[in-house]
Amino acid sequence: MTTLKTQVAIVGAGPAGLLLGALLHRAGIANIIIERQSPEYVLSRIRAGILEQVSVDLLHEAGVGSGVSDGGIVHHSIDLVFKNTRHPIEVTHLTGGKVVTAYGQTELTRDLMEQRSALGLTSIYQVIEVDLHGIDGTQPSVSYKTTDHSERQTIECDFVAGCDGFHGVARQHIPKNILQEFERVYPFGWLGVLADVPPVSPHAIVYANSERGFALCSMRSLTRSRYYVQCPMSDQVSDWSDDRFWDELKRRLDPELAEKMVTGPSIEKSIAPLRSYVAEPMRHGRLFLAGDACHIVPPTGAKGLNLAATDVKYLSQAFIDYYRTQKTLGIDEYSAKCLKRIWKAERFSWWLTSLMHRFPDTAGFGQKIQEAELEYLVKSESLSRSLAENYVGLPLDFDQ
Ligand code: APR
Ligand code: PHB
């Protein structure tokens, strides 16, 4: 059996694991990342791409800010479309100058992977049978097999960071009598399309609530667009030809935007379910969870990647404080500190999802309430400001 030693063993090479590894390395804390999939598979995932300023700042802190600086598209507003009319929400004006940046998770993940490789840091891909040991003690370890070795490998460490996403193993190591899970599953999904066509609205992300359902117009660059329409979870991607998708998307937008829409062949098409989920606590002994491993938000508020980033900011700082002072205050406070921010983002994502989607069982009264809230929102500076301050991301010291 081969045994490696490090300070922090990170399970998962998605945005959370890679960003944590980068921040720890810059602070001189040794870390090893193990990942179930291949690098190519990780990069093939198409996920949301809206970054809060806190996340952009963190990428610069991690030494990979040039990608988002060069390729990110800064937005100062979002548009809400309902009853065939588009209403701008001037996010930057309403928040005293804050912005969001469109930059794909794929590009962010590639930036972090390339930096880690250039630094010669240890990342072990395509591991199987990952197991965690001794997380209740002071000498935890992670074991795994690789597809080219039959024998089990072990990483001895001080801490384990479970950055292995919703379907990972780390969360399973928190005892069932301690773990509390909170979940809401939504009665619809998002059909997403990526196409190499110019975004219909390069200056604002567009959210539409139409009688036919929700639609979203976003982008990955000025030549690559990302669009979504709400669809029943019973739908299959094969039910949706490109022509059907473009036709449905246009029907859900205001006439001017529909007219401007540039269509083209899809280069990616997928249906994703929507759920809200939080697992508490995010720490058990020497195991710390971050990102999708302990929370999921419906993508409406574009909070998934940003929450992973702030979890990692808090966790990296906690480890840095521990190694510098041998004091455990930071790691002891980690879970509660993250959960305050997580639950506010869960609330915002649930609220915006409830406001912008058609729910099969809330016609009549529910529909009228939704319409009244939308009309109130676009006329009320205070409610628009509330949307805006949550959309750009609450300040890190909001709960201090
Ligand atoms: N062993 C090793 N790696 C694992 C295991 C395992 N048992 N199980 C899962 N993984 C890997 C996955 O293959 C994935 O690459 O952990 C990684 C988790 O990455 P993400 O699911 O992307 O989660 P996270 O890093 O927290 O990023 C959150 O990703 O899903 C989006 O919307 C989400 O934007 C948000 C972001
Ligand atoms: C995206 O660009 O994929 C995106 C943008 C905004 C959202 C969700 C997804 O709210």
For the sheet with most strands, the description reads: 8 strands, mixed
- Going by CATH, what is the homologous superfamily of the largest domain? FAD/NAD(P)-binding domain
Can you give the helix content as a percent range? Answer: 25-40%
Total of domains: 2
The radius of gyration over CA amounts to 21 Å
CATH class categorisation of the largest domain? Alpha Beta
Bound molecules: adenosine-5-diphosphoribose, P-hydroxybenzoic acid
Q: How much is the average pLDDT?
A: 96
Number of helical elements: 12
How would you classify the helix and strand content by structural class?
A: alpha/beta
Query: How many β-strand stretches?
Result: 21
* Beta-strand content: 25-35%
CATH architecture descriptor text of the largest domain: 3-Layer(bba) Sandwich
Overall outline: globular
